[in-house]
User: Which sequence fits this backbone?
């Protein structure tokens, strides 16, 4: 991005930002909805041992679901901010982030009175989304667009595939609770692993049917990273 900014190659900058946003959505939208669908079994598997009770699992899972909403916002900022830095406009993301901190505090103070600790999680997520949306609007002005139609179409396709995936994950976990009841670590791990595998399969199938090209790019990135680790 720094090289493209130096050459004032704004068409390629717009294309690069759009590609980055597409790949990010392909990774993070399914992650967000997957965490929301499987929050309880994942938390139970990791923490519900010893003095950590089922009530603690329910409370922690609730916080996780509200925090997960902000995952997309955090990731957008990680794309937009470095682009501003490459353009020599570091003041923009810094200013927006500082304002977002005050918005976060205001939201937390307001929502905690209505939702308790869940309000803290939701307020933090909303502030992240506001930060991301503001930076995207300003970045669009700075580089003359971000290929909005391409990004929007990708988002809608990914969201459709991810909702299908989340429904499959939730249904699989519910079905397995009846087929493989029990709270031992082995049974919990088996149910979570099976639900995640089914979810990934459904996501792959839905992405193929919807022709989400970012899915194949993301898959190659993940597989390539694992191959490097295994070496």
Assistant:
């Amino acid at each position: 991005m720094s090289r493209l900014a130096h050459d004032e190659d704004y068409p390629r900058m717009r294309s690069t930002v759009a590609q980055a946003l597409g790949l990010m959505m392909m990774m993070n939208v399914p992650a967000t909805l997957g965490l929301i669908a499987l929050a309880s079994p994942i938390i139970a598997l990791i923490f519900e041992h010893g003095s950590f009770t089922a009530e603690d699992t329910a409370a922690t899972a609730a916080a996780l679901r509200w925090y997960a909403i902000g995952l997309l916002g955090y990731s957008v900022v990680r794309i937009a901010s470095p682009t501003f830095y490459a353009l020599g406009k570091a003041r923009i993301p810094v200013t927006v982030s500082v304002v977002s901190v005050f918005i976060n505090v205001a939201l937390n103070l307001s929502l905690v009175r209505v939702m308790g600790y869940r309000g803290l999680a939701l307020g933090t997520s909303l502030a992240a989304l506001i930060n991301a949306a503001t930076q995207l609007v300003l970045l669009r002005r700075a580089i003359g667009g971000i290929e909005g139609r391409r990004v929007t179409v990708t988002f809608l396709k990914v969201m459709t595939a991810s909702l299908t995936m989340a429904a499959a994950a939730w249904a699989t976990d519910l079905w397995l609770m009846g087929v493989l009841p029990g709270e031992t670590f082995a049974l919990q791990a088996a149910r979570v692993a099976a639900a995640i595998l089914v979810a990934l399969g459904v996501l792959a199938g839905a992405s193929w049917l919807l022709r989400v090209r970012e899915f194949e790019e993301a898959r190659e990135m993940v597989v390539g990273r694992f191959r490097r680790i295994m070496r």
Summary: The radius of gyration is 20 Å.
